[in-house]
Sequence to fold (577 residues):
Amino acid sequence: MEQAHTLLQEIVSDKAKRSGLKPITLLEKFYEWEKKQPNKVYLRQPSGNQWINYTWAEVGDQARRIATAINSLGLPPKSNIGIISKNCAHWIISDLAILMAGHVSVPFYPTLSAEQLNQVLNHSECKVLFIGKLDEPNWKAMKAGIPGNIQCITYPQYNQSAKIEEKGYWKWEDLLKKYEPKKDNHIPDLDDIFTIIYTSGTTGMPKGVMHSFYTSSIGIDSAAEILKIGSTEDRYFSYLPLCHIAERAIVESASIHSGGTVYFADTLESFAANLAEAQPTHFLAVPRIWTKFQMGILAKIPQKKLDLLLKIPILSSIIKKKIKKKLGLSKAKVILTGAAPMPPALLSWYHKLGIYIQEAYGMTENNGECTLMRLDKVKMGTVGQPYPGVQLKIDKENNNEILMKAEWVMVGYYKEPGKTAETIQDGWLRTGDSGEIDEEGFLKITGRVKDTFKGAKGEFIVPGPIEAGFATNTNIEQVCIVGRGLPQPIALVVLSEFGKNLDKIAITESLEATRKAINQKLVHYERVEKVVVVKEPWTIENGLLTPTLKIRRNILEEKYEGLLQKWYEKSDSVIWE
Fold:
């Protein structure tokens, strides 16, 4: 392990030398704001009907006290320390405390089972675990997975969250009273590991992606201008998992870079009200959330009525402003989507409302920064052009895999030198995604290299573009194209709330019309033979979605494997499970 760490240090130091840049680490940025604007509110945490404010000075004071508590344990320098919690003010404070104490932050998804949590805790060799805002069922399901030799620290009690009162656990409030704030400012080396982020894992064991202080800092520095990050008046709304690279970058890193304010969501029920009150300047949502927002709008203003209102100049302006304010986007200067493909039809629908969503493409391994759709350079069906400092190319010999190179590519996978060597070759990150680059540098994602499957006719089928076609139907919330070994593909669909409210005949006609329209644009072996309406929605809880709402395609195929052939042999083209 010591040899591996030395090699990693050489890789990161070499990156710094090549770029000629020496970015200020995010921890040092925090120290700056703590000193420059101690009384400005940094974190705003809702609790019921009130907001609890934490200034930069208060965040610094709590983080420094917790850092002293961590150091009282006498851990070896650069030990791995875990966080498992839904997003909240104490998530960011504990993250800062870990870094101030000279250790490595290792966040985990708050929906893990006991087996999954035990797996990543053991693999990461965590010495301490912060346990925070968790739903009661999740806490009951996971707590048995925590090894007895890990020191656990619990956050203060949050509204509607699990009461965690296990014997031997340290309480945050007690530590604040017991320990003095750490007085010196720990300054990390650029090549020190900042965090290990475990991927959500659409297949197999999650991999621990290591980012150094260099890769995390140079990444946000390079993206700041294009993402309009840099004003102390910036506001961020945190609700997607902070243990995921997207939220970590566009909320935590961006807020520390800019000196802005972070707002949190209290509960699922209060989400809309919290967002409307926050009115963030920067907002990120995955496509499924944009679909849910669309459904909410159309439930109040049916499409025909909305189309009519948008044609009347004065009313159109009023309606657009009202929708933006109600959603919480009236002050937004950057509105992003990512993590999964966004249907062009959905982007166009929002454009008509004056909501310009910029599609971003990235992954944990490249700090979430690869391409971005510029507002002044929009090309539907693509994910925009590369960020400044990104090089792209296509490996035509491996299913058109997208390769990228940038200064902020990960250091490697924790304790996985073999997988690191497979993923980073000659400085190029193999993304695992297939794509095309046009003459203007726009990148089009055509699917996952591993998602491509072969039908019974021996032809390879790429499901992504076909699924995007079905996403134009507002009666469909989720879709997955399957058919490995079948003569033609099958579309598995989960109905949206709209779809569920229509009668069976209307839905059948709607799905059949969509199937026929899509098939006209496909080559013969890609054409969808059947559309199957499944009973059970695909969720994180039933294991069919990752925590970032991506479909676990292999698990879905296993679930329906025994039924696919029977459905294919039925005479109807639209089948109900």
About this structure: The radius of gyration is 24 Å. Residues 483 and 489 are 5 Å apart (CA to CA). Residues 453-576 form a domain with the GMP Synthetase; Chain A, domain 3 fold (CATH 3.30.300.30).
